[in-house]
Amino acid sequence: MKDILTAPFLRETCSTASNMYRLGWDERNGGNISMLVDAAEAAEYLDLNNVIRRIPTGFDAKAVAGRIFVVTGTGKYFKNIEKQPEKDLGVIRISADGSEAELLWGFADGGSFTSELPAHLMTHISRLAADPNHRVVTHCHPTYTVAMTRVHPLDERAFTRTLWKTCTECIIVFPEGVGVLPWMVCGTNEIGAATAEKMKDRRLVVWASHGIYGTGRDLDEAFGLIETVEKAAQLYMLTAHLPTLNTITDENLKALAARFNVDYRKDYLDE
Ligand code: 2HA
Ligand code: ZN
Predict the structure, then answer these.
(1) Atom of ligand 1 nearest to the CA of 32
(2) Percentage of the chain lying above the pLDDT 70 cut
(3) pLDDT (tens digit, 9 = 90+) per residue, 65-103?
C-alpha cells in the first residue's frame, strides 16, 4: 500500500487550498473543496473495506452511492490544510442507500465533512449528468466577487454580461455564464438544491453576499473559473464608480466567441 500523503488527489487538494487561502478567498474556516476519486486510485492508498466511522449525510445522496470523495472538514481553516491534511481532510464513500458517508481516511481529530456537503454532492450529481468527466466542486469567498453582489443587480444575464464585458477572457472561459442565487441560509439542503439546479447547465454559481461555487474536471479548471470571475469582478469594482469610456460590445463578444469557437449562452447577447 502506498503512503496516502503522497497521493496526487491529496497533494493537489492541499496545494489548491493553500493557493485559495493566499488569495484571500478563504478567511478563517471559509470555503470547502470536494473531489471525486476513482476507486482504483483510492485502493492504491487505502483498504476500501476498512470503514473508520459512518457519518449521516443528512439527505438522499443515492445518486452518488459508492462514489469516493476527498473533502474538506467542517470548521477547518484552509490556512492549515497543507500542514495537517489527516485532520482537515477526509476521504469518504457514500453508502449504498445514500444516507451515510463512510469515512475511509482523515478527520483524525474526530471531525466531519464540510457543512456544505449537500451543496457539494447535489452539485456533483448535476455536473456528472452534464459531463461524465466532471470531478471537482469548490466553494470560497473571493473578495471582489462578493463585493460585486452588493452593488450589481443579481439578474444572471445582467451579471454575466457585466463580467463578459469587463475583460476579454471571460466569454471564452465561461461561455455558459454564471448562475446567481439571492442571499440564502448556507449549509442547508435548500441552498444545495438551488445551487445544483443552476449547475445543470453551468459550472459557476455565485451566492449573493457570500461567495461562489466553481466546478470542473480537475482542480485547475474549478480554480481557474473562479479566478477569472474574481479578476473581472475586481476590475468592475475598481471602475464601476468611474465614467466608462470603453467597453467590450456585444458585437465584440460575438467576434471573440467565433474566433475561439465557444458555444456561449446566445440569449445573453443582444441581437
Ligand atoms: O465552510 O464557507 O459556506 C464555511 C463556508 C460555509
Ligand atoms: Zn461559504
Answers:
(1) 1
(2) 100
(3) 999 999 999 999 999 999 999 999 999 999 999 999 999
- Interhelix angle 156-166/219-239, rounded to 10 degrees, is 90
Q: Structure pTM? A: 0.97
Q: Which CATH number fits domain 1-115: 3.40.225.10, 3.10.20.600, 3.30.70.260, 3.40.50.150?
A: 3.40.225.10
Q: Which residues line ligand 1 (CB under 6 A)?
A: 29-32, 114-116, 139, 186
pLDDT of residue 271: 84
Ligand 2 centroid–CA 185 distance in Å is 10
Atom of ligand 1 nearest to the CA of 139: 2
Best residue among 145, 186, 195, 206 to mutate for probing ligand 1's pocket (most ligand atoms within 8 Å of CB) is: 186
Q: Is domain 118-271 annotated with CATH 3.40.225.10?
A: yes
Do residues 22 and 31 make contact, with C-beta atoms less than 8 angstroms apart?
Answer: no
φ and ψ of 89, to 5 deg: -120, 155
User: Average per-residue pLDDT in the chain?
Assistant: 98
* DSSP β-bridge partners for residue 73: 113
Distance CA 137, CA 71 (A): 10
What cell numbers appear for 188 in the block? Answer: 442547508
Mean pLDDT of 194-212: 98
CA–centroid distance, residue 187 to ligand 2 (Å) = 8
